[in-house]
Amino acid sequence: MKSFLTSLAATVLLAASAFGSLDYTYTGLGLADGSGQITITYPTNYSGGSQTESNIGVGQLNMRNPLDGSTFNAFCLSPAGQLFPGTAAYTVLTFEQAKYGANPADWSHNGGIENAAYIWAQNQGTITTNAQGAALNLALWTALYNSTAVGVVDDSGRFSVSGSAFNGAIEHAYSADLAQVNGASKSAILANYSANPGYILRPVNTSMQDLIVLPGVIPAGMRAGLAVAPEPSTIFGLLFLGVFVFGQTAIERIKQPLLARIR
Which of 117-121, 181-185, 219-223 is predicted with the least confidence, judged by mean pLDDT? Predict the structure, then answer.
């Protein structure tokens, strides 16, 4: 009985972990372009509205786990979102759970997150310069909002980038990032997506930015819970099933010695 209850508790806690939040601290730009000479235009709704932001910094973000002091990098997926210095609470989501974005919640329904996940997987470990950091962030946004199919990203679609800083090294790295997904097979992109090469941190404060991070940033127990990603009703179902199974097991244990005596 003790082992059963222990297993049941572990199952329920694992399921419930998908609904918790984690605190992380933004400490400033990492490998990024902070010149203020980049302008972006992004959709505000799926039917054609748009918004332009000028003089933005874009690229890798430096983050810290306040519990253990460990540091990691992240990239913003919300061009309309805000990012405040200091600590904020985030809900952890898989790529699939994060559809269709936030601020604006307008990712392409035709391969947006699948293509962005592929660009992320191909490049997140190769960033060594400010230009590469800025280019990866811009390429992620372009894939999220301009994808027309899995493996097809249009760099002249609903999301666009301009400005005096968007030339030379940044533009070259940006084009190379998009060429990777446009040159990949659909099967390779979907296989990468299924492998879940990262997670999305969605802020509890809904005015802030979604962040994309590597799997190792998320505690292993929470990653396991997210793989199942049960609905709240599932947790109650697990409890009910556990009680039912335990009851059946107890009945069988009572019946066995009675049957032995009858025989």
Answer: 219-223
For residue 92, the cross-strand partners are 201
Q: Is residue 33 within 8 Å of 165, Cβ to Cβ?
A: yes
Q: Are 121 and 197 in contact (CB under 8 A)?
A: yes
CB 103 within 8 A of CB 78: yes
pLDDT digit string, tens, across residues 80-130: 999 999 999 999 999 999 999 999 999 999 999 999 999 999 999 899 999
DSSP state of 209: -
Which residue, among 125, 139, 146, 135, has the nearest Cα to 168 in the 3D structure?
Answer: 135
Do the beta carbons of residue 177 and residue 98 sit within 8 Å? no
Q: Which of 130, 128, 110, 132 is nearest to 119 (CA)?
A: 132
Whether residue 46 has a cis bond before it, omega within 30° of 0: no
Structure-block tokens of residue 5: 């209850």
Q: What is the pLDDT of residues 142-155, one digit of tens each?
A: 999 999 999 999 98
